[in-house]
């Protein structure tokens, strides 16, 4: 996750950006839910219920198909929140509210970053975060939240019901690892005392990240390496960050020329690779945050290196977003799955995609410039958003017709891995 404040961009707005890395057959739903009034007393979450608000704010969210909550989103007040998994020494609870559900509840009820921070902390402490974070298997973790509005940003890192929060200035990046040492602005009661007692941490040299992190799982996740990459990249371009820097960053691969079968958990744009790389980037979002209006760039699909970031101004309308019912099984009626079939066909022939990627990025830059000009004039970008979808479709149609004349260029093991996970979803690849 990435935050850049308005002083360090050429855009004059606070920026939030995130890749959502999930299991390869976990379709991501991107939806716009308008402001609503409610008569019901409770709202059904992924697990359990929570008191419903009389009014919930309009939100644009990106969520796994099976959850109520979201990996990332923006609301009508320009509040953006994203969360990532972190692995700690504290026990993982089967009870409580899913971290993604907490994120959506905050977006629907809070107007600014500090209000959202306080709301999330309240739920982290009681009833607490908990539940299973994967569909069809057991996977548990705790959560870090990046909370950004047009005027301020906060980082909240948690370990069970313990937490530390830091107000952010300039720019900051987060991946799957705790980052706060002793420089927090707020923390839970007895944060230090608990760690000293349970984990024999040094009181005089206390570090929240060092004391509470599960070293093995944090190392496996390579979050610190990804954070080093994103931090160094942004530092090179501060204070002149523009949209192309953000799209380039979310498409970053550790080694170029890139081949998916040689990918790494250090990549920002993650490609599925079997047991050693069990996740892929399922959805990507960049949000430029104004109080009245926002400009959000969405891939609407996996693997941002092969996808166009499509510019949608908010407020929007629900029917602008392509959808269709989604599950963990392929459906040609669902936009994400329709794109996923194309992405996996491409991935197996990745060396043939250089011209496609160059054309895609060129068209994207033109559309982004047009959208930005429209946005700063106070006009919506809805027609440009629709045109972005059509332009991407046209390029994909051309490249698929070309590359499927050739056999997959991926090595045997990688072809087997991709086709195996695809067959599990009922998807037969060419």
* Count of beta strands: 18
Multimeric status of the protein = single chain
CATH class reads Alpha Beta
Number of domains: 1
Helix/strand structural class: alpha+beta
Q: How are the elements arranged and paired?
A:
Elements: E1 2-4, E2 14-22, E3 28-33, E4 36-37, E5 42-44, E6 49-51, E7 55-56, E8 59-64, E9 72-75, E10 80-86, H1 99-109, H2 113-125, E11 142-148, E12 153-159, E13 162-167, E14 171-173, E15 186-187, H3 191-199, H4 208-212, H5 215-221, H6 223-237, H7 243-250, E16 280-289, E17 294-298, E18 310-314, H8 335-347, H9 354-376, H10 382-403, H11 412-424
Antiparallel strand pairs: 1-2, 1-14, 2-16, 3-8, 4-7, 5-6, 8-9, 9-10, 10-11, 11-12, 12-13, 13-15, 16-17, 17-18
Structure description:
The protein has 430 residues and is α+β, with helices and mostly antiparallel strands. It has one domain: 4-Layer Sandwich (Penicillin V Acylase, Chain A), CATH 3.60.60. It contains 11 helices and 18 strands. It has helices at residues 99-109, 113-125, 191-199, 208-212, 215-221, 223-237, 243-250, 335-347, 354-376, 382-403, 412-424, and strands spanning 2-4, 14-22, 28-33, 36-37, 42-44, 49-51, 55-56, 59-64, 72-75, 80-86, 142-148, 153-159, 162-167, 171-173, 186-187, 280-289, 294-298, 310-314. It has an 8-stranded antiparallel β-sheet, covered by helices on one side. A 6-stranded antiparallel β-sheet has the order 14-1-2-16-17-18. Strand 9 and strand 10 form a beta hairpin. Helix 1 (99-109) packs across helix 2 and helix 9 (354-376) packs antiparallel against helix 10. It is globular.
């Amino acid at each position: 996750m990435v935050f850049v404040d308005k002083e360090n961009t050429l855009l004059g707005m606070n920026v939030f950006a995130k890749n959502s890395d999930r299991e390869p057959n976990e379709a991501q739903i991107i939806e716009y839910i308008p402001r609503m009034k409610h008569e019901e007393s409770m709202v059904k979450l992924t697990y359990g219920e929570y008191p419903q608000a009389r009014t919930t704010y309009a939100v644009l969210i990106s969520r796994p198909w099976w959850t109520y909550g979201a990996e990332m989103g923006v609301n009508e007040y320009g509040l953006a929140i994203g969360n990532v998994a972190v692995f700690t020494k504290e026990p993982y609870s089967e009870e409580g509210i899913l971290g993604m559900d907490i994120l959506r509840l905050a977006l629907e009820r809070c107007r600014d970053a500090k209000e959202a921070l306080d709301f999330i902390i309240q739920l982290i402490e009681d009833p607490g975060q908990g539940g299973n974070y994967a569909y069809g298997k057991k996977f548990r973790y705790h959560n870090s939240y990046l909370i950004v509005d047009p005027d301020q940003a906060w980082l909240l890192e948690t370990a069970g019901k313990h937490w530390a929060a830091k107000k952010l200035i300039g720019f900051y990046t987060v991946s799957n690892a705790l980052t706060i040492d002793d420089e927090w602005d707020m923390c839970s009661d007895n944060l230090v005392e608990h760690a000293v007692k349970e984990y024999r941490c040094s009181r005089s040299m206390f570090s929240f990240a060092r004391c509470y992190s599960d070293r093995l799982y944090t190392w496996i996740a390579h979050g610190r390496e990804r954070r080093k990459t994103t931090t160094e990249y942004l530092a090179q371009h501060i204070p002149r960050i523009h949209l192309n820097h953000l799209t380039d960053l979310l498409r970053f691969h550790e080694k170029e020329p890139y081949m998916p079968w040689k990918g790494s958990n250090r990549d920002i744009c993650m490609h599925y690779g079997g047991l050693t790389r069990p996740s892929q980037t399922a959805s990507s979002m960049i949000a430029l945050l104004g109080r009245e209006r926002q400009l959000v760039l969405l891939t609407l699909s996996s693997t941002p290196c092969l996808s166009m970031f499509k510019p949608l101004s908010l407020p929007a309308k629900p029917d602008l977003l392509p959808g269709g019912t989604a599950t963990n099984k392929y459906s040609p009626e669902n936009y994400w799955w329709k794109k996923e079939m194309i992405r996996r066909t491409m991935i197996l022939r990745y060396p043939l995609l250089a011209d496609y990627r160059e054309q895609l990025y060129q068209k994207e830059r033109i559309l982004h410039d047009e959208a930005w000009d429209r946005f700063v004039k106070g006009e919506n970008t809805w027609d440009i958003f629709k045109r972005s979808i059509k332009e991407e479709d046209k390029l994909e149609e051309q490249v698929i017709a070309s590359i499927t004349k050739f056999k997959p260029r991926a090595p045997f093991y990688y072809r087997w891995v991709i086709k195996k996970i695809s067959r599990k979803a009922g998807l037969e690849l060419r």
